[in-house]
Design goal:
alpha+beta; Photosynthetic Reaction Center, Chain H, domain 2; eight-stranded mixed sheet; seven-stranded mixed sheet; 15 strands; disordered C terminus
């Protein structure tokens, strides 16, 4: 099912032996447009330390009660490697994190989560393998709250700004950016898939798309209080003349956005 990231904020997170706290933010992978971590506010730690929780640790997502249940104890999370979630999270931090929990790394493979597309398919190591050469040491994790507010520029000028993200609650892939157009006309909220962006400038906080303002203005409106069903998605993709992502066995095309290497500096 597709869900708004803003709607997932303040969900309770519980360990096998009690509550940890609540979700306050998310870290997004800007290469694969996937939510890699939930940022959990204190509820467990007296020092006020926020912690990162990966969807691979979920035992159950209880949507009706707005709760994520983890297959981990409070002590296991309390002793996890310290990460400053307000600064760039490097591959070294992630390596330490995954080795501590005994899970293989997700990067460097064809799937969203290692060899597959679902976080639950990542199985713990019996024995940690020897370190392998990393594909890249770049930082590709960004705070969802930092990216919200980025301006969207079409082929003929500014269109709106990012107001939210819509995520697949099974793969944790970002399916859509929610664009608020109300600053430019008596507007509405519309959806654009991340791979429809032609260029992203992290330094300028701008996303460029090869769509006109008029095309965006007339696109199917998105209502935050309405579930996104396949009928709506079919109208959206048909309107933009884009191939649907659920064809060919549900495979989705890879992101094609061209990013400025000099502005690809990671989470601020």
């Amino acid at each position: 099912m597709l869900r708004s990231l803003k709607d997932l904020e303040r969900y309770t997170v519980t360990a096998t032996d009690g509550d940890l706290g609540s979700v306050s933010n998310f870290l997004l992978d800007d290469e694969r447009w996937t939510v890699r971590y939930l940022v959990v506010e204190p509820g467990l730690f007296h020092d006020g330390r926020r912690v990162l929780v990966s969807p691979i640790f979920f035992r159950q997502a209880e949507w009706a009660t707005r709760c994520f249940h983890l297959a981990l104890t409070k002590d296991k999370i309390r002793n996890s490697p310290s990460v400053d979630v307000d600064k760039p999270v490097s591959r070294q931090h992630e390596r330490d994190y995954f080795r501590y929990y005994g899970y293989p790394y997700y990067w460097g493979y064809s799937g969203l989560w290692g060899m597959g597309n679902y976080p639950g398919l990542l199985a713990p190591w019996n024995e940690p393998p020897a370190d392998r050469k990393e594909v890249s040491g770049d930082v590709h994790l960004r705070s969802a709250k930092e990216v919200v507010g980025y301006d969207i520029h079409g082929s003929d000028g500014a269109i709106g700004s990012i107001a939210d993200f819509v995520v697949d609650d099974e793969t944790w892939r970002i399916q859509y950016m929610v664009i608020d157009t109300s600053h430019w006309w008596f507007g509405k909220k519309v959806l654009i898939a991340p791979e429809w962006a032609s260029r992203i400038s992290w330094e300028e906080r701008k996303v460029y798309v090869d769509l006109s303002r008029q095309a965006i203005k007339k696109s199917p409106e998105w209502h935050p209080d309405a579930a996104i069903n396949r009928e709506y998605e079919e109208r959206l993709y048909d309107y933009y003349g884009r191939p649907v992502y659920w064809g060919e066995g549900g495979r989705r095309e890879e992101p094609t956005a061209r990013q400025h290497p000099e502005t690809h500096s990671g989470l601020r």
